[in-house]
Amino acid sequence: MNLNSVACPLDCYDTCEAVYEDGKCKPNKKHPTTGSKLCVNFGHLLNETVLEQPFFNNESLELDRALSMLVEKLKSSEAQNVLYYKGSGNLGVMQSAPKAFFASYGATLTRGSLCDGGGGEGLEQGRGKVVNPPIENLLNADVIICWGRNFSVTSSHMYELVKDKTFITIDPIKTDMAKKSALHLQINPKTDDELALLLTRFAYMNDLEDEASFQEYASGADWFFDLAKSRPVVSYEATTGVTLKEVTTFMEMIQNKKVAIMVGLGVQKYYEGATIMRCIDSFAAYIGVHNKEAGGLWYLSDSMYGYEKQFLATPKKRVDIPSVNFADYEVVFIQGANPVISAPNTKRVIEGLKKSFVVYFGTTFNETCEYANLIIPSTMFLEKEDVRISYGHEYKAVSNKVREKTTQSITEYELAQYLCNAFNLPALKEEQSVLEYYRNTTPERSHILESFEFVEEADIVHLYEEKEEHEYYLITAKTKKCLNSQFKTDDNVYMNSSCGINEGAEVTISSSYGQASFILKHSDDVKENCVLIYAGAKNVNHLTSHKSDEASFSAMYQEVLVTVELS
What we know:
The chain is built from 18 helices and 28 strands. α3 (97-105) packs parallel to α17 (412-422). The model has no long low-confidence stretch (mean pLDDT 96). By secondary structure, it is α/β, with parallel strands linked by helices.
């Protein structure tokens, strides 16, 4: 183990590992995916201004006093009226320690996800687990299908390993990855299930079904094919926006090829996100990408699959994370999150925070801090030990303490242990024992599916069924300039130049949940029936629903139609 290694704590597929030398972070060239350079986001991370001391109602104070105030507030509150809300702005196995305390204390915890919940649920329904194939399978593929995933931007290090492959992109936006692809299917939003069924029909017509493969481990293939052929092929052109000619080209490109499918988050940001993902995964099974030594289907993997959790959290009460009403709680403890920007229905979020005693625990000042009564700095990644387990690939990254603390901060483990002691709760596992477990454990994560159930019905209400001519689909995609609400966000709205509104104009965008103002920029990378607002933009979640999806208690940011008019 390199004692100078540090792991990037950002919410990213690549999970980079760097080496700290002479006061600088350099890429660890021995790490399988990091390679010879660090990405843009890692550079932004190193230039962030970290919180240096605690604050109470905008007045600075000593760390000891801040911790005492936290204990006093928790002791004077009913435990069930305390909400523990954890985000993904700061990742690492040790950062689960506070969750264990709050569960033991009796606080209300969240369930579901603001990110990948629907897609993960869909994969679990079909295969029982969410485990990606090994990177070697990706290296051995001939053709890589990027389905709703801007692979070259969101997984820049993984992309570098396979950039000479043949790519196909399926996306409503002409993304950076789409421009690098041999074929781009510019699909209409929330029709990915229909495209999966259409591709299945064409796979059958072109003898691309791998019946011998899926009959070994799968059930329901006949029902799935009945679903795929339940409507005329030509009808899919109007609904998906993909022509039959393009589908024919797609089939020619994957004929006799080893196929990898990289699925992104956009396909499942809908009420029936789990079913949509099951349709995509069922198509993948139909053409036989599973259980092979080359290719497969990648999503946001369950990074903790196969590990024994070292910090156990068994909360007495949970609430869906997108629909949580902060106003319902006397105390809201927010760790590594920025719900004022990242959570759906911004107006509701802000109104709720104003009615609660808010504790913010994180490394940097963000928009949520403006509504926090008590701010406690968490120790930045160079000044503590941790281990990053990747959700993008099978490799972990180890983070060592490479310099002493330069701020009045406290690590996640230190805070949790402090609170356990203050409330006479059982102590956590010893810190080094937990670290050694994750450093030295490599669980077996077979990507081989012992069983698979094809989706047999897809009861999906498509947005095009409700869309009026003057309405647009909302797309909330990733950008290379920032990571969600971290770093330099792009707060503009992008529309096709055919929209009839001059570039630079201030526009009001409205949905059934709220409205907000944006500066309009033209981009013909955006489909004519869409508006693109990047994830992390300051006003985008004024437009989104706080309701939970159908199956996973998770957010559905794109389940919305919007109107646009000059302000």
